[in-house]
Amino acid sequence: SIWASVVLLRGQVALAASRKATNTSARASLRRRNSYLGSSEHRDMAWRRLIGRGSAGARTPQGALRALSAAPASADLTRNIGISAHIDSGKTTLTERILYYTGRINNIHDVRGKDGVGAKMDSMDLEREKGITIQSAATHCSWNENHINIIDTPGHVDFTIEVERALRVLDGGVLVLCGVSGVQSQSLTVDRQMKRYDVPRVAFVNKLDRAGANPDKVVEQLREQMALHACAVQMPIGLSENHEGVVDLVKRVAYTFKGVKGEEVEETDVPSSLVDEVEERRNTLIEAVADVDDSLAELYLEGEDITAEALTEAIGRATKAREFVPVFMGSAFKNKGVQPLLDGVVSYLPAPTAREGVHALDLENDEAPVPIECDSNAPLLALAFKLEESRFGQLTYVRIYQGTLKKGDYIQNVRTRSRTKVPRVVRMHADDMEEIEAASAGDVVAIFGVECASMDSFVSGEKRGESSRLAMASMYVPRPVISLAVAPKKGAPPNVVDAFGNALQRFTREDPTLRVHVDQESKQTIISGMGELHLDVYVERMRREYKVEVDVGEPQVNYREAITRKATFDYLHKKQTGGSGQYAKIIGYIEPSDEDDFEFVNECVGTNVPSEFIPSVEKGCRDAIAKGDLVGFPVEGLRVVLQDGAAHAVDSSDQAFRAAALYAVKKAIGEAGAKVLEPVMALEVSAPTEFQGDIMGSINQRRGMITNNATDGAQSVINADVPLAQLFGYSTDIRSQTQGKGEFTMEYKTHTSVMPDQQAELVKEFQARRAEESK
Known about the structure:
By secondary structure, the chain is of the alpha+beta class. 31% of the residues lie in helices and 29% in strands. Helix 7 (160-169) runs parallel beside helix 8 and helix 16 crosses helix 17 (654-670).
């Protein structure tokens, strides 16, 4: 039996007093897992199999479960999920409990590292110091014989690219919501990201142990603010300090969580005082699911008794079809509701084989979509979605969509056509890794020693020159909104300057939202990102990881320039310096475009402008808009139409037409009513109601426009659109205005025109700066 094997193993080691607590915890862990590992015969076989392999981790029941969770599963028994939410909603706390209850870690640690260890998924010192997740972290575990790959993502808007890339490759999501605050600004951002990539999700209303928790309000917000067809599949047993557990509305049973860390799940009948309410809520759930599932609707209309099995299957179908969102409840911090949530992940979220609408792009057929299936025997197709530098070199996280990736295989980068041998394949557990021989379709793993960029696709490269030209679609990358001038401290030795360059090169490879360029006039190195915290983190990482002390300039807002009306151009570029000269003439017009990006249209008829010079004209136009003449920022929303021109048989060249387009468009922009655009942020402030007036007054002083003001008891939530330039230092102001009780979040919303007096001031400052730099 299992316990006979345990006794035998324990006889092989010294029974030191310090080990008693560990062994007790291991026995409790195995007891709580027995019901999820199948029959006793299955558990005996699994245990003996692990011992027979001589697994180093199989010396205790806890170690055996860790080894079990690392074992590969078929794609049908795999779930790839991301845990996402607004900052401080309890994502990492929830992940820590999931890892503990599935046997991946031996103990539960504090997210902020107050116990000297910190949460497993927050492995960076900065994350533990600030108490927030900065980088997404991957892990894996086993639950009810299913293999679950998990990515824990940041909740702060400055690191939203981590959520973006995780949801791009995952099959399901867990949207965590605070039971008190409900739907918040970053909750809405995550919702948009999940919808962008058609990711089915379940919701978890967390923190029901806190005063003011109201899960019904949160479910209503999911429906109204996110337009989701959401309904609770559980109801809480008590709230705030009386929160004891949850009732499963599907099975009509109650769950309470016993033991020191909630590891013992006790299933009982529904308390008699809640029976009527449970039946009423269950009928509401059935009606909600029947609205989107024909099979259940048929049973419901015929008056059939809806069994737990039928309701479970219907919820699963509707959730996978992204027509329904089941809502779970609990308190991760108080160790309540986590195990039933895991059951819901397995029952309601799709396996890779059940994910619909997955397709690749055929690069040899104008990127036509090609449906792909999660088949381990098909040709390899994998997507690199995250890069990290490690002590072993570049670590590349990949999602395998079809085929099998083996250690020692040759793979080909579809973008660069380079062919590389895979030296190592590993499964990640936060900053730890487990080397494996192979991974199959549907899995999420990491590989070493493969140079690539984020969002590169890989195919089999075993036969040189015969690789597929299929590639997976990339992801949405938001543009930066704030910039800083950075440089090593004056007098830094050459090795520090080199380290500074290496750090920036590494960070930009890892993070697509971090941009670096050298200003051609000031010769300063400029880094651009999603917010002050985003850039501060990278400056601090340079100091800690590369020992580079950095001088940081004042934050700079990323303005844009645009035109307000149509303007024509008729420009001749003619230059003679002896020998063949330069000759190019172009005629056309520019006009505002509805699109933010640049648009070039060639309406030339005939050969007045030879076709081989058209690409050079477009390049010249792009040169012209790279830096506007008003404030030195790029021009956007511009459409250039080329109508006619002229060329010379000898003197015309690519260089001549590129120069002609540059000067022509520059001149036309000056005649088209150029204006300056500034980034506007969607600001959300949460604070006690007593400070509401001061906060609204402060927002008005910052040229903000209040869009919503909601009061819930003693707490107020104020939403406003505020120019980014007015928000520097706002964190200090909000703390002083609310006696440290207020908090705010912001995210980029759009670029809008600045006021005329502000534009005049910006133009004046730019001209003065340019005159100073030209001296």
